[in-house]
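Handout, section B. The chain below has 296 residues.
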Amino acid sequence: MNWTNAIQGFKDYLKFERGLSDNTLAAYSRDLSLLDQSSGKGPSSISAQDIQQFLISLHEQGTSPRSQGRILSALRGFFRWMQEEQMRTDDPSLLFENPKVGRKLPVVLSVSEVQSILEAIPMNAANATRDRAIIELLYACGLRVSEVCTLKRSLLRLNEGYIIVTGKGNKQRLVPVHKEAIKFLELYLEHERPHLPCKPQHTDTVFLSVRGTGLTRQSIFLKIKHFTAQAGIKKNISPHSLRHSFATHLMEGGADLRIVQQLLGHESITTTEIYTHISAQRLSEEIATYHPLNSL
């Protein structure tokens, strides 16, 4: 079996039996293609030595430990699947451990910085209420940018004050929406969206581009970069920064960790626990700044 057929078979397994998202499938495909390019061997012939050389080359190329760990995870799943499908009798990835990854705290905006970004959107510009509604939702609901891109009109419950979001693994969750976000979302749906072209497969998509298709993650990333620069904020901001800020501000306000986990759609509580570290770091900074002994 060649790499193309093997990767497609693995993706079909992940999609139809594991229910993984298209984004995850694309990432796994890219990671496995890297091993294909590195080894020059078919998937049935890969040895532990080939994987070792591949991992060494990733390190030499400056691939981060986190990315190396993700790639190794893809390899493990792939070779385990090959064993189950009786395409191999062994698993050459079995003895490799993930590289140690230091926990990197994400960039967090202050409440005033978020407000500055929102105010930087020129409301007399074309599609301004759409852009304002997107940024409001990213911060007010802590959504992933992919969840904003795939948000469906049929899953909006704005009269009840919440939306139904489809997250990783096609899992759905209820997310309450702040009144300000609802206001701009309703303005967009009533006054802007009806005037945008709409491809037949996107009639249920909330946020449309000028081409009538759903917005891409890249386009939202560029919009946020632009408005952040207009607001005079020098931090390296992405759509995920608004999600991080949402969670951090909730934790600092005393929200229960389990509630934050549910709102973010984290499967594991350990993923959400990073926000307790951020809050602790903020407290340390406040003490360092304002405690009287630090001025002596």
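Note. The radius of gyration is 22 Å. Compare this with the example in section A.
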